[in-house]
Amino acid sequence: MRIIFKKSRDLHIDENIIKKNRIPILIQDKEWREIVGVNYNKTIQSLSKELETLLRERKDLTNELGKNRAIKTKLMNKILHLSDLINTKGQENVVPELERSQAEIIKLNDSTDEITEKLEAYPWKIEEVNLAILKETINIIYNDIKSDYSKLQGVDEEISVLREKLGPLRDEKEALERKVGALYSFLHTFIGHKEMEKLDLHFFNE
């Protein structure tokens, strides 16, 4: 059966189905890297670099957010301690330090809110670029399939031709073997095995 491939055009796929299938981050997928790889063509290279940048930025922001939370925990403990010194022991001299810590908390909260807001945009950005890589991957794979299928059709045609030739050749081979066997048997009856060996050497070594 001959498969007819349509010419390449803009690829439209149902993104909802893709999302349900939970497509992995392709540049991190071992099988994708073996089949396609980040250096396959300029489009893949560009999209891969863009995705790598997004993943790196998200990681850096996540780390920064973790550091902010750790610092905030220390500041909160410090504020509680300083407040206790003021309220229970009347150590008013720690008030400036308390105020500095509270100001740091406010600044840290602003930074944390900013980082959190930035991080919220990364999932869809990453998904968008990953989907673009998937679409390009589909184009690449189908182009390979088309190329390989064309070669496969050529090989199938050659095999068909060889099969057509093979039938008569097999019949001819069997007929020749029978004839050679009959001729050997005929002479063997008259002159015997040893003389046949001598004749073989004489006639086949000419």
Summarize the structure.
The longest helix has 110 residues, at 95-204. 83% of the residues lie in helices and 0% in strands. The chain has helices at residues 15-20, 30-35, 42-89, 95-204.
Q: Could you please describe the fold and organization of this structure?
A:
- With 206 residues, this protein is mostly helical.
- It has four helices and no strands.
- α3 runs antiparallel to α4.
* Overall pLDDT: 87
Given the structure, what is the number of helices? 4
Query: pLDDT under 50 segments (min length 5)?
Result: 1-9
How do the helices and strands follow one another from N- to C-terminus?
Answer: HHHH
What's the total number of strands?
A: 0
Alpha-carbon distance between the two ends: 53 Å
The proportion of residues forming helix, as a percent range, comes to over 70%
| Strand residue percentage | under 5%
Could you give a short account of the major beta sheet?
A: none
What topology does this entry show?
Layout: H1 15-20, H2 30-35, H3 42-89, H4 95-204
Helix pairs in contact: 3-4
